[in-house]
Every structure is written in C-alpha cells, then in structure tokens.
Amino acid sequence: MTRVLAYTTPARGHLYPIVPTLLELQRRGHAIAVRTLGSEVDRMAELGFDAAPVDPAIEAIEHDDYKGKNPLDRVNRALEVFMRRAPLDGADLSRAIAEEHPDALLADANAWGSAVVAEASGLPWAQWMPYLLPLPSKGVPPWGPGLKPGTGPLVALRDRALGRVISRKMNSVVLAPTNAARSEAGLPPVADASETVTRAPRLLYL
C-alpha cells in the first residue's frame, strides 16, 4: 500500500478536480492524506481521506485580482498572491510530510512553494493542473487575458507581442522569489516562469 499526500491551494476549484483521482487511488488500496482549505476538511474526511487544513495564514492571503484594472493587471495580482503564499505553503507541506510520512506527493500547480518542497523531497511526485496550461503553443493565444483564438497574420502578431509582454511580467513577479526558494532547497534555478510547470516528473492535466 502506498500513502499519497495531496497538497492543495485553499480553493474548491483546485481541490475537487483532483478528488476523483484520489478516490480511484483509494479504491485501489492506497491510503490518502489531504491538506486543503479548512471548510472542506470534514467533507474530505467523509470520503475516507486523512484530511487536515492548510496553514490558516495561507487562506488569510486573499486574492484581489478582481480589483485589476485590465486583464494583465489581474494576472499580475494573482501571481503576487501566489508568491506571498509560496513560503507558507512550502513550509506547510514540509510539516505535512513529517507528520504523514507519505510515499508519494501530489501538489497543486498553484501552490508554488509546495512544488519546490516536493521536488527537493526526493519522493515520487506529480502536479495537477485544473485549468488551461500557461504554456505557449502554436495557434493558441497567450495565457492570462482570456483572448479568443483566431487565424491570420494580425492575430499571430498579436499573440507573439502580447505573449512576450506577459512572459516578462510573469518573470518579474515569479523568478526572484522562486529561485531564492529553489536555491535554499538545493535545487537549480529556472530561467523562465513557465519552467516551473515542467519540473514535476508527471503532470495531471485536468
């Protein structure tokens, strides 16, 4: 029997997409531990998981992206929240590992600090992504502003130009704190924010 520890951000939209996977692992005889938002702990326990809340200080850092003046500002605000939470969710996952003694880890893609701890832990681990991948792809608008896809040279020019702007903005918010945490954990730096999505040995794309 394998003991799997799943670590989520304090968001139902990130918890419940992974629940069917956890239930299937449980059905196959594996033990499941979950760290998630406090309001959902009882429900997770009813499903048979060893459930506990994430550090309340993480939940206390609320998203304010709705205050953004435009789509880019909203993306920037969301990333800043993730960076403020990252040291807390990294430390929180470290405590959970010490308490649960898992054989494998599942980390929410928006819990940036937990990904660093998972990678450095030496345990088998994977991330799950419950929304569109924030990676560039041919014929796909850049991640973040919610642009409609299209065809033709003008759309391609729009996507390339805006993609560069968004990439620079993401890197300006994410790279310094992420690489500081990676260095402290003994991990090599990443050169671009998008690399954080590809560090896990497996990505469950939901």
Q: Which spans of ≥5 residues are poorly predicted at pLDDT below 50?
A: none
Which percent range fits the helix content? 40-55%
The profile of the biggest β sheet is: 6 strands, parallel
Q: How large a portion of the residues is in β-strands, by DSSP E? A: 5-15%
- In sequence order, what are the helices and strands, one letter per element? EHHEHEHHEHEHE
Strand-pairing-aware structural class? alpha/beta
Average pLDDT confidence is 92
Tell me the total number of β-strands: 6
Shape, principal axes of CA atoms: globular
The CA-CA distance between the termini, in Å, is 25 Å
How is the largest sheet built, in terms of strand order? Answer: 3-2-1-4-5-6
Distinct helical segment count: 7
Please give the radius of gyration in angstroms: 18 Å
Notes on the structure:
This protein has 206 residues and is α/β, with parallel strands linked by helices. It is 47% helix and 14% strand. It is built from 7 helices and 6 strands, in the order βααβαβααβαβαβ. The chain has helices at residues 12-15, 19-27, 41-46, 56-60, 71-100, 112-121, 153-184, and strands at 3-7, 31-36, 50-53, 104-108, 125-129, 202-205. The chain has a 6-stranded parallel beta sheet, with helices on both faces. Helix 5 (71-100) packs parallel to helix 6 (112-121).
SSE order and pairing:
Layout: E1 3-7, H1 12-15, H2 19-27, E2 31-36, H3 41-46, E3 50-53, H4 56-60, H5 71-100, E4 104-108, H6 112-121, E5 125-129, H7 153-184, E6 202-205
Parallel strand pairs: 1-2, 1-4, 2-3, 4-5, 5-6
Properties at a glance:
six-stranded parallel sheet, alpha/beta, single chain, 14% strand, 206 residues
